[in-house]
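Notebook, student rotation project (T.W.).
Task set for the rotation: take a protein with a known small-molecule partner, predict the structure of the complex, and write up what can be learned from the model alone. Partner molecule chosen: guanosine-5'-triphosphate. Sequence and SMILES entered below by T.W., checked by me.
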Amino acid sequence: MTSSPLPSHASPVIAPLARPSAQYLTGWSDLENSSQPGTPGVPHNLISPAYTPPLTPSIPSTPSSRPHYRTHEPESIPVDTSLDDSVTKQPRLVQHLPVVECLVRARIPTTSGAEMFLHLYQNDSDNKEHLAIVFGNNIRSRSLDAEKMGETEMDRMIRGAYVGRLRPGRTSSRREDENDLRRKVLRPDAGTKRRKRSGSSLKNVSVPEGEAVDYMSASTSTTSPTHSDGASTPPLSGTAASTQSQDEQNAESISSRPQPPAIPPGNPASAPPTTPSILKPPLVRIHSECYTGETAWSARCDCGEQLDEAARLMSTSSLLNPDPSTIGGVIVYLRQEGRGIGLASKLKAYNLQDLGNDTVEANLLLRHPADARTYGLATAILQDLGLGTDTDQEKRPQARGIRLLTNNPDKVRAVEGPGREVRVVERVAMVPVAWKTKGERGVQGEELTRYLETKIGRMGHMIHE
Ligand SMILES: Nc1nc2c(ncn2[C@@H]2O[C@H](COP(=O)(O)OP(=O)(O)OP(=O)(O)O)[C@@H](O)[C@H]2O)c(=O)[nH]1
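Predicted structure of the complex:
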């Protein structure tokens, strides 16, 4: 920190931190002993005993000086937060999980071609609208699907509590409607055509009960060419790939795609179970709002890029990945702007950063914690989406829990909730795009370099290539 005058509202008791020693850093083993090898700030118990963490690289100042890069996706790293609680820094855990309810859901076709379902949540702990961005067809909100007293089928469709796909003239939110549509739309010979194709590209659908089902190739293979590398083109651009009418495509897709069962009225607990196809835990990203990085093109941080990357990984998983075991995923978008201090304070923090302070010091000078966020809402939303329990008998053991996309060790334990309601079984690192592409793409600049250095050096973030 510089010796420049502090702002008038700065706490007189906050002294400059020459070396990380603030309370929020205690318990992060090697921050207090820099001579220890290992990734700075990695709590021992987040890492599986079978896994030896590599050194977190310092951030080279120029892309060309970086020793090596990975262009493929970062690997999952096993984690087990229950191994040794005593040495873990305890993140700020909420005492009780908030109650959340999904008010509405809608299909969003995106500019990348992938589709997602945007879920809007209300809760009983703040008055903000938090969001879940859901990729893939297998993840459903229990609170959304629950029957509401006195509502009509149209009400259900308007708030997004339908299965399958909406289209003009649809009258029921339930699955039976899809069967009607299939009967109406398919020409008499269309079934034969489909069965012929089923013989080749839909063979994975007919498997004995309990066996793995290749749902994504089932849902895309009728309309998607397969590349030589085994990846399918998303069936979303429409015109080029097929000579079928859209209705026929829809009907075929509906008839061949395994559908969740109809929702029994009045029984939210028995909302559609997850399918048996998922062989890996779903990919989850807990993203905190960043107006500057996501909307105002800021190169002070990589938040916008991280959001894009998370969506890319999840839509790749759900549409293109030849390995169908990684179907779908969820980005929980929490309205915790500026690590929970709000946009006004974050902008003041930016000015303090321009005056020579790092991101941690700037927060502290404004009398905020270095990180004011909590993750109880994320836990509750994941629960509502049926994700993350390790006792879910509907799922195969290897599909239980979640794979969390993050470098932030705080999040790993915090997202699990006070009673470990959700289980993080793997962590997937978020490597800056500029690192992965040798500086050809991605956010870059002096400010970003300092931002990442502070995250690694002072906040214990585990970024490695
Ligand atoms: N106070 C403050 N918040 C910032 C700053 N830059 C970005 N943010 C906020 O930081 C949040 C993103 O958190 P990060 O610490 O970048 O990353 P993370 O979510 O903790 O960790 P990852 O999961 O690894 O991305 C968003 O809410 C941003 O608005 C800053 O300079 N000061």
